[in-house]
Design a protein that fits this description.
Blueprint lengths: L9 E12 L5 E25 L4 E12 L11 E4 L2 E5 L4 E2 L6 E11 L2
């Protein structure tokens, strides 16, 4: 995959879910904190529709490319917000071509129809 700096046209925000203890001491999912926002190239590259017995589930896989930062800045439990869509990293981020120029995040969006 070739990436040019001019192709980073999509504004993405990385959100990290915050877990807070309740009155019993159990961790309960709370709001999300913004980790960072940056320009990225977002490419949808696969789609899957599965029609189960109860509901139809649509899955769209995305490849998000951004300027290199430490892969530990992005965790697999983080959420990437792009154009109102919530993308979940499907795997740990990796540098493109093994160089420290671009960081690639494989993400998945699951949409359940009512």
């Amino acid at each position: 995959m070739y990436v040019n700096i001019g192709e980073l046209r999509h504004r993405v925000t990385v959100l990290r879910p915050r877990a807070e203890p309740d009155a019993s001491g159990n961790l309960v999912a709370g709001d999300c904190d913004e980790v960072f926002s940056c320009w990225a190239k977002v490419l949808p590259f696969a789609a899957k529709i599965s029609d189960g017995t109860a509901e139809m589930v649509r899955e769209v896989d995305y490849r998000v490319v951004l300027r290199y930062r430490e892969p530990s800045d992005i965790r697999t439990e983080d959420v990437i917000l792009w154009q109102g869509r919530k993308l979940s990293p499907a795997a740990p981020p990796y540098p493109l071509d093994g160089k420290r120029r671009w960081l690639v995040i494989e993400c998945r969006e699951m949409v359940e129809d009512a």
